[in-house]
Amino acid sequence: MEVPILKQGAVLIATFQAALSDADLNQLRMGLVQQVVKFRSRAVIVDVTAMDVMDSFASRTLREIAHMIRLRGAETVIVGIQPEVAFAMVQLGLTLEGVATALDLEEGLAYLNEKFKTTS
Amino acid sequence: MPRREGTPTPPDPKRTEEPSELLRELVAHLRQNRTQLREEWVVRITETRLLTAMTKEEIFAEATSVYDSYVEALETEAFEALQAYARNLSERIIPRGVETHEVVGIVLLLRDVLARSLFAKYQNDFKKLNRILDAYEPAANRIANTVAVGFVQERERVIRQQQEAIRELSTPVLQVRERLLILPIIGVIDPQRARQLTEQLLRGIRTNRAKVVVIDITGVAAMDLTVANNLVQTVEASRLLGATVIVTGLSPEIAQTLVTIGVDLGKMNTVGDLQGGIEQAERLLGYKVEKLAEPR
Amino acid sequence: MSVGEIRVAINSDQDIVSARQKGRAMASELGFSSGDATLIATAISELARNIVSYARKGQITLKGVHGSSRVGIVVIASDDGPGILDIRQALRDGFSTSGSLGLGLPGVRRLMDEFEIDSQPGRGTIVAVKKWRQ
User: Fold this and answer.
1) Minimum-distance CB partner of A102 among B199, B236, B242
2) In the Cβ-directed half-sphere of C126, how many Cα atoms lie within 13 Å?
3) Tens digit of pLDDT for each residue in B66-79?
4) What residues contact C73, with CB distance under 8 A and at least 6 apart?
């Protein structure tokens, strides 16, 4: 299942539709970085609201995405982690350290707007 | 059809009464002497200072129903009614503060009072007394057991219910301002409570769309490795939902413990007291709180 | 209520997703809270991933257990892969490993109530974990 990537101004929004396989995640990683380069995006929001499980692989992939995108000078925000998923993640020691998080898409956009205001 | 095939025949069938026959005789005796035996029992209960939480009249009333249920259980050898009565009794007396040893005590007293009356009645026929006691004792013990177990089960149910209620009360997630939650933690945190606390907070963050949470642990007496790790996990899980956590009220002792066991306090945003924590939270949320005028 | 046994063959990363979905469904059917079902599904995901990463293929077995006073779920991950050389090492971790590479077994252990492992180099690995309904 492919993850749709939506371009909204300087922000790319990737929405996870359902449970993703490793292959889907790898594809997303490549796709996102390519599009950030192509559109010169300033930020990426990854919306994981639909993810019912976030295991070590998914978590590691998200961190790698964030790091690669930072190397392109852009920011990543992970939004929509469900309370139960967050609880399971910290039990596994997966804390997405160094990656920005927000409650949902709206909050993620608000966070980025605030950030752009102060940096530009 | 051959009669009673397969059942062991008593060694001396013509002389020995069936146990049920003996029980019938016994029950008749207990019914006949109901007033006197019940009175004696109540006296013994008061003497032994049991059921002190109840008045004399109450004790007498309960004693009467217990006595009748007791005799009925002996007669019918059906314990369901007694069980139901024991539960009902427990329900009424547990809130009064009646303890397990008291309930067991009074049932054992009744057993003794009745046994004594049997001694008195059959003192001239030792063999018969023995057979009567053979029939009486197992039944009496089973009754004592039934009542005691009924009481303890009821008590456990009440305790469970109270624990549930306390747990609900003890983890209030309060919204003090838009997007700001406060979680004051008081008392002992065991892993189960820690988990409940975290789940409630995470749900609270989502429903209130909170951006900042102040967790106040002034009321937490002690913290070990497990609890400390739970706290760190709560902070981390909140962040995954996009909320910043400020921990306040960390006592010097707890701070010491956390450092000793290697909890990375650098990851935790700590402020001395609750007031300071709320002030910082307001700053994070962009509030500026000012006094309008000096109060008169 | 009886929930039987479900076996899921793990041959590719696609199977990881289906194993954890089946695990979640069974957990819900057994009456686990959705929070617990998430923990169980996450543990299955980790175990199945170990199979794919280290043994290529194996099997996840899911079973309901009905004890005298409690209900639980058992997840067994088995493979004929290379096995684990040092089990103790595989089970060790700092409390807050940040999702770096590894077997993820300590994490799985924290997600569940009971944890058993049997493995020998060259002889495959069996991990059995259990969680009780609260």
Assistant:
1) B242
2) 7
3) 888 888 888 887 88
4) C23, C26, C27, C30, C32, C40, C62, C63, C64, C65, C130, C131
Strand ranges of the sheet holding B244-248, from the earlier edge strand across to the other edge:
B174-177, B180-186, B212-219, B244-248, B269-271
| Spatial separation of the C-alpha atoms in residues B29 and B33, rounded to whole Å | 6
Look up the domain containing B258 and give its range.
Answer: 174-284
Residue B278 is given by DSSP the state H
pLDDT surpassing 80 at residue B221 = no
Report yes or no on B45 lying in a domain: yes
In this structure, the answer to whether residues B26 and B118 fall within a common structural domain is yes
CATH code for the domain in which residue B111 is found: 1.10.490.70
pLDDT attached to residue A119: 66
Inter-helix orientation angle A83-91/B191-208, to 10°: 140
List of chains touching A (3+ CB pairs within 8 A): B, C
Left, alpha or beta for B100 (phi > 0: left; psi -120 to 50: alpha)? Answer: alpha
Per-residue pLDDT tens over the stretch B7-52: 555 555 445 667 778 888 888 998 999 999 999 999 999 898 888 8
In the structure, what pLDDT confidence band is assigned to residue C7 with cuts at 50, 70 and 90?
A: very high
Q: What residue ranges do the domains of chain A occupy?
A: 5-119
Q: Domain residues for C16?
A: 5-132
- pLDDT at residue A6 greater than cutoff 70: yes
ipTM for this prediction: 0.92
Question: Strand ranges (DSSP E) for B220-263?
Answer: 244-248
Domain containing C62 — which CATH number? Answer: 3.30.565.10
Q: Which stretches of chain B sit within 8 Å of chain C by CB?
A: 192, 199, 229, 232, 236, 264
Residue range A5-119, CATH number: 3.30.750.24
Chain A residues touching B199 at Cβ < 8 A: 83-84, 87
